[in-house]
Amino acid sequence: MTTIKDTREEWEIRATDTPFVGNKTSVRTDDVVMPDGSVVRRDYQVHPGSVAVLALDEEDRVLLINQYRHPVRHKLWEIPAGLLDVPGENPLHAAQRELYEEAHVKAEDWRVLTDVYTTPGGCDEAVRIFLARGLSEAEGERFAAEHEETDMQHARVPVDELVRLVLAGDVHNNCLVVGVLSLVAARGGEGLDALRPADAPWPARPFSS
């Protein structure tokens, strides 16, 4: 019987180049040896990784933000998320920071909801999506927004309504879609308290405590 589990594997690379380096990401070109011995060129975006937070309040509503995303020319409803700016940073700390900065909210209970590669055919980005519960307003001053975040809106939407919006094609952000459907699946399975702890290992982006 075949075991269904993603496995680490790295095929031989004959040559590599980085033709573009941006502010946060870069583009790499690798000449990769295929199983039949042929060599094929593969271009992909190199990404530091991200975290996202599905913050669930006591009324079973998910905290959303609305933000302009220039590559797709849309304002998207999303869950709070951000880059892993510091190599080796604990993803939980990054998630807590993003929830504070984007929503001025803190949470008492944190779990790993799911881990995903967003677009593995063309980008090495890995995202850890957390479930945050026990929400309350954060102390201190609000984070000073800049760029697209200066136009950000906030909303809290019931889980059932979000599922309807996902299946109707009204919301498209990958972390929101994956996060809310994973939440519903977890509830229908072993329950939210059976989710992995917030400090569970993450081989895609190893970190120290």
TrEMBL record:
The keyword Hydrolase applies. GO terms for biological process: nucleoside phosphate metabolic process; ribose phosphate metabolic process. CDD domains: NUDIX_ADPRase_Rv1700. Keywords: Hydrolase. It comes from the Bacteria. One of its GO terms (molecular function) is hydrolase activity. GO terms for cellular component: cytosol. Residues 45-179 form the Nudix hydrolase domain. This is NUDIX hydrolase. It comes from Streptomyces misionensis.
